[in-house]
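Hey all, quick one. A colleague (J.T.) asked me to put the S-adenosylmethionine job into the tracker so the inputs and the structure tokens live in one place instead of scattered across chat threads. No bug as far as I know, just bookkeeping. Sequence used:
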Amino acid sequence: MARYDEIGVGYARGRRTDPRWLTPVLSALGSAASVLDVGSGTGSYEPPSRHLVAVEPSAEMIRQRRPEAAPVVRAVAEALPFGSSAFDAALAVLTVHHWPDWRRGLAELRRVSRRQVVLAYDTALHSDFWFVREYVPEVAALEASRPSAPEIAEVLGAVSVTELPVPWDFTDGVFPAYWRRPEAYLDPAVRRSCSALAQTAPAAVDRGIARLRADLASGRWRDEHADLLDLPEWDAGFRLIVA
Ligand SMILES: C[S@@+](CC[C@H](N)C(=O)[O-])C[C@H]1O[C@@H](n2cnc3c(N)ncnc32)[C@H](O)[C@@H]1O
């Protein structure tokens, strides 16, 4: 059973495409006419008007794809069932950190495509997020085990790495999406959409949430994080890598 068959339930509801990330993803794909979206999930960042094929291992994620979405092949990044240079570009958005053999997956991306566009994150910056530092430090161990954006860029031989800040009202519920809306983390549905929390011991998450709830009620969180409240966007470490 693929991990996302379990943690991906309700994904399409909590993880809605944000145009502020879709635009740079589309421009990174350049003039590619054929695109392979690896670890496509529900297809949040799939470009329209191109010949697109999706690859996704989880039946639950495939089930949540829109009826008009591109055709999807059930497979994993580490063994792509396509010939060499079959696509102009390969796209991998917020997925490389889930691949058991991410180096092999990246080698496969390079084999099947001429251009690679990967949206990943710097795991050290994620671990420095206030939610991790102050409430659920156990997430840092998981982050340390995941490939980080600079490593991914190096392995791919990237030609560009662009910072993608998280707007304060971001619609794609990635883990740090609610950096300025802390009350959101009290909602179990929001936490379920974040793999970093879904893959951390429930007792540790519950402990952190109880502390956050108390700090929000007492006003302590606001006092401690007054500097964040006027920021329109914040760098949580997301990087758009082009190779
Ligand atoms: C956080 S979701 C991202 C989905 C989509 N790219 C997006 O941006 O909404 C991660 C996806 O990676 C998929 N995945 C996990 N392991 C994989 C592997 N070895 N190869 C390809 N995809 C994988 C999961 O099933 C899940 O759909």
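Adding what we noticed when we looked at it: The beta strands are 34-38, 51-55, 72-73, 87-93, 113-121, 160-163, 166-167, 233-234, 238-242. The radius of gyration is 18 Å.
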